[in-house]
Amino acid sequence: MTAEAPLMEAPLVEARGLHTWFELRQWGFLRVGAVRAVDDVSFTLARGEAVAFVGESGCGKSSLVRTLLGLHRPTAGEVRCEGRDLASLGGAELKAWRARVGYVQQDPFGALPPFLDVRRILAEPLKVHGVGDRAERERRIRAALEEVRLTPVEEFLGKFPHMLSGGQQQRVVIARALILEPALVIADEPVSMLDASVRVEILELLRGIQRQRGLTLAFVTHDLATVRHYAERILVLYAGKVVESAPVEALLDAPEHPYTRALLGVLSDPDAANATRQREVPPGEPPSLITPPSGCRFHPRCARAIAGRCEVEAPPEIATAPARRVACWLFDEPAPPAP
Amino acid sequence: MIAWRSGRWRELARYPSAIAGVAIILVLVGVALAAPLAVPYGEALERWRGGERWQYHPVNAAPVWVDRLRGGRAPTTRVIASRDVEAEVHPFPGGRRLTLPLTFDYAFDDFPSELNLFLTAEGHARPPFVRLLWQTPDGREIPLGGHRLGERERISISQDRALAQRLGGLAPHIGLFAAEKAEGEAGAPSLQTGRYGLVLEAVLFDAEAPLEAELVVYGRVHGIAGTDHQRRALSLALLWGTPVALAFGLIAAVGTTLTTLVIAAVGVWYRGWVDAVIQRLTEVNMILPVLPILVMVGTLYSTSIWLMLGVVVLLGIFSAGIKTYRAMLLPIREAPYIEAARAYGASNLRIVMRYMLPRILPVLVPSFVTLIPTFVFLEASLAVLGLGDPELPTWGKVLNDAQSQSALYNGYVYWVVSPALLLMLTGLGFAMLGFALDRVFNPRLRSL
Amino acid sequence: MATTTTGVAAGEALLRVEALALHYRTRQGAVRAVDGLTFDVKRGEALVVLGESGCGKSSLARALMRLHPRNLAHHGGRVWLGETLISELSDERFRREVQWSRLALVMQASMNALNPVVKVGEQVAEPLRELKRWPRRRALERAAEVFQRVGLPLDFMARYPFELSGGMRQRAVLAMALVAEPELVILDEPTSALDVLTQAAIMNVLKEIKRDQGTSFILITHDVATSSELADRVALMYAGELVETCSAERFFTAPAHPYSRMLMESVPRLHERRRPRAIAGQPPSLLDPPGGCRFAARCPARFARCAESPPAFVPETADGAGAGVEPGGEPGVGGEVSSEVRESRHRVRCWLHATGREETP
């Protein structure tokens, strides 16, 4: 990171007009359509910031993550990583980029090979990238375990994943993501499979490491309630598109897009009164990504849809405040309407 | 994997069948290791070729212990050699006369199976002459005629038709050992026990040159495994059959399992046309019948066991196993830890060999163990069909001989039972271990 | 008191469970998944059983429904449903008279347990035809009613499960549980695999059914926020035991057990700036649970007495009731206890709330 002084201000990752479609073919060649998992998404991840990608299952957030990791090739658009287009990277350069990205998955048990012990699991990325000799690797493995607070380290080095609790497994996954000293960590639903009491621990750990190392954290979640303390910005995804992006506090306190409002409307803090309160749920279900609705993808479920406009033309991203954008025709006026 | 293993072994020890299976396998492996130590490979082949070295063995003798267990006292083979007895020598000008009393005690329940006399007279200018006299315990003396000797002479007393006629139609090895019958007494000859003797009166036309004589009274039982129609001790074949069978089974199982596994994993990982080609090859191969192909190779080319092994492994590569492994590997391909490995940049080869294969290896161990005896049986089947290795003593070969000699029809049950029993024991041992392993490795099968 | 129901005989205990136990046999020894639970559910009431994974909450559902695994080691305790002592019924009678018809279960991920080759409508009608021997038409008519109740369009009756989304399938499973009009429905993590909006929609349906039909619910979940969507009362499980049972108001505002408090503090809140706090440590193994209080190892308020296993206390600060040890942990019995205590249904398994101890740190 030393020779990059002039690039300091440039974003670490910049996605422009990103499309990741999966072709559907019949008999292996006849194209019958495409799953538009990521459909014209643009965003930037600045160095050292934590960004939450929020959306329901099937909104394309996992495909977006995999595109960032270089596991899927974008169909159109580009992802610029440290100024270079991910798609243009050759084998060795792509491998080098992968060392710059740590990946934390949803299911900690599945994310660890069950037949390797913790030491070997952590040694794998180092071996793949030919880092250090045996002693150097051992030193880094121990340092990583200490960083995720699996101490005493000796106790964990020889353990197999099934001997660890869910929280400990997720710590090993995080240690593996950090061991190559990445610039970006992508965490895909890192706590959704953990118990409530452990979730906070893991989120705190991730956030702490992110701040301490000054790395960029892309944190994918479906649960808006967990976002407040663990990210600076939120991007809300719906049916393959970003519908709203804003700083965390601003979005949680005053959501703009009708979808974000609906999401926040059904979430609540634990309260006995919830039991007698009927929630306002937009009718219908998230649309198919193969045949998405015309215009705004949320319009069939939106109570405030403007007839003749929302179903015709997809809304552009409209800046409503500094660092705040919303893709909704309601904000097209010079003065946004009262909520 | 090491930490896994110790736990698994402890788990395995809970199954008595597994322990019995391991015990059987250990015994077989012990025998297999002992075989080359007891009889080196080359010597084993040499001996199995048959010939003179077996001439002191009876034909088609049952194992000793079978008879003894049933409380019998069937005769074993005895060799009475001239060097062990005191010879009377009467020199005469130009030679000497020799009287060799080859005496022995006969105390068995049954007549011997054959009677042969081997004479060696080397270095004589003129062939010596010998006259034989049979002495029975009750004092009768039966002349067996005279012979002029070559350097090596084998006098088959049992084959002497004239003698048989003199003995009232009884084969000499029976007639000579039968008690004298009263006039007009009918029925089977009865055995007389006691001290018998064969007195050789030899005339040698040489003062020095030796005359060696060996009287072989062939028994009806021999050794721990008996003998076959060529007098060969079956123990040799049964002993050496063990390493051959285990080696064939093990190499074939390892060869087919590993190659099949790697190919299946490669197909699953790369998908697309690689997978398609592998699938089609497998499907074609699946309808090719293995045994007929082996029979063809054996008939038209060579029946060497190593060639057969090669063909078995070759045909096993694209076997139905690929389909099974593919089904097991497909979900593993999508496992998050594989995705994680891709994300940190692991190469395709590393992913296949280090992340996919180890995952299903434990599941394969049981099926691998149960696969070993199927190849052992395959080798035996080939041998029974007459396509066994022509040189190697194997269990299948013994069975093949037994079959061609109509062993069961002739009542040589041991000839069939002992190799069959060894084959079954092998199958049983591996199967018991394999099924127990299956329960250990596939917890869904466990009964609690 | 927590019953907030309409019409139907509120206040009367529908389900009474006494010292319910369910132990499994494993190679390592017996797992005490459910270890002496005592609680009750009134008519029209929803009890939420909260607990972390592995605390035995799913085993509780199985124990009540008698869905025993093969490695069952011990099943004990007494269960009354209304006036019937259902734990004493033979398996056959239980199946015929209680399962589905009086006591229904929606299992975790049961939306994936629908038969893929039978139309959804037929599957929902199946319990009626099987248990009540209703003719097909009548059963299907009733199924159609339930379809409307749970918010499924009627034309979905003729569809196959794979044609439905996850949320719709979950509604179908719910319809199947409700079709025989059971008095009590046990929901084991009914929405944990679903999206936030779908989850809210299904909770809406449950609330309506509870309000309109007076059905009682036991909702088993690990998600505190979801639990508040239905709960009249909350029972918190920890390591096979109930550590606290109280009204929802009490639980979500001022729970009595240290574990309950720490759990509430660990929940991230949408509208509060306070950072959630994690609970250090891990729950003990159910194979060999520690003697004494099972939470002691993680409890900041532990003291010498925690080495002994605490009984269930009625805390002094309980819902308007006085303090006192409850004999045998059985609700509503014990002559020497004051009537106020008998009224209170708040139970805490913690020495901090023993009689005579007044401090609550």
Describe the structure.
The complex is a heterotrimer of chains A (339), B (448) and C (361). Helices cover 27% and strands 23% of the residues of chain A. Chain A is an alpha/beta fold and 339 residues long. Chain A has a domain at 111-181. In chain A, the strands form two sheets. Chain A has an eight-stranded mixed sheet, sandwiched between helices. In chain A, a hairpin with a 3-residue loop joins β1 and β2. In chain A, α6 (166-178) packs parallel to α7 (196-213). Chain B is of the alpha+beta class. Chain B is 52% helix and 15% strand. In chain B, the strands form two sheets. In chain B, strands 2-3-8-5-6 form a five-stranded antiparallel sheet, with no helix packed on it. Chain B has a four-stranded antiparallel sheet with strand order 1-9-4-7, with no helix packed on it. In chain B, α7 (234-270) runs antiparallel to α13 and α13 (348-387) packs parallel to α14 (395-404). Chain B is elongated. By secondary structure, chain C is of the alpha/beta class. Chain C is 27% helix and 22% strand. In chain C, the strands form three sheets. Chain C has a seven-stranded mixed sheet with strand order 6-7-8-3-9-10-13, with helices on both faces. In chain C, α3 packs across α4, α3 runs parallel beside α5 and α4 packs across α5 (166-178). Chain C is globular and about 65 Å long. Chains in contact: A-B, A-C, B-C. At the A-C interface, α7 and α9 of A face α6, α7, α8 and α9 of C.
Topology readout:
The complex is a heterotrimer of chains A (339), B (448) and C (361).
Chain A: E1 13-26, E2 30-45, E3 50-54, H1 61-68, E4 76-81, E5 84-85, H2 91-99, E6 101-104, H3 118-128, H4 134-147, H5 153-157, H6 166-178, E7 184-188, H7 196-213, E8 216-221, E9 233-238, E10 241-247, H8 248-253, H9 258-266, E11 318-321, E12 324-326
Parallel strand pairs in A: 3-8, 3-9, 6-7, 7-8
Antiparallel strand pairs in A: 1-2, 1-4, 4-5, 9-10, 10-12, 11-12
Chain B: H1 2-12, H2 16-38, H3 41-48, H4 64-69, E1 78-81, E2 88-92, E3 95-106, E4 114-120, E5 129-135, E6 141-148, E7 152-156, H5 161-166, H6 172-175, E8 194-204, E9 212-218, H7 234-270, H8 272-287, H9 290-300, H10 305-317, H11 321-333, H12 336-343, H13 348-387, H14 395-404, H15 413-441
Antiparallel strand pairs in B: 1-9, 2-3, 3-8, 4-7, 4-9, 5-6, 5-8
Helix pairs in contact in B: 2-7, 2-15, 7-8, 7-10, 7-11, 7-13, 7-14, 9-10, 9-13, 11-13, 12-13, 13-14, 13-15, 14-15
Chain C: E1 13-26, E2 29-42, E3 46-50, H1 57-65, E4 72-81, E5 84-85, H2 91-97, E6 103-106, H3 120-131, H4 136-149, H5 166-178, E7 184-188, H6 196-213, E8 216-221, H7 224-227, E9 233-238, E10 241-247, H8 248-253, H9 258-266, E11 313-314, E12 324-325, H10 339-343, E13 347-348
Parallel strand pairs in C: 3-8, 3-9, 6-7, 7-8
Antiparallel strand pairs in C: 1-2, 1-4, 4-5, 9-10, 10-13, 11-12
Helix pairs in contact in C: 3-4, 3-5, 4-5
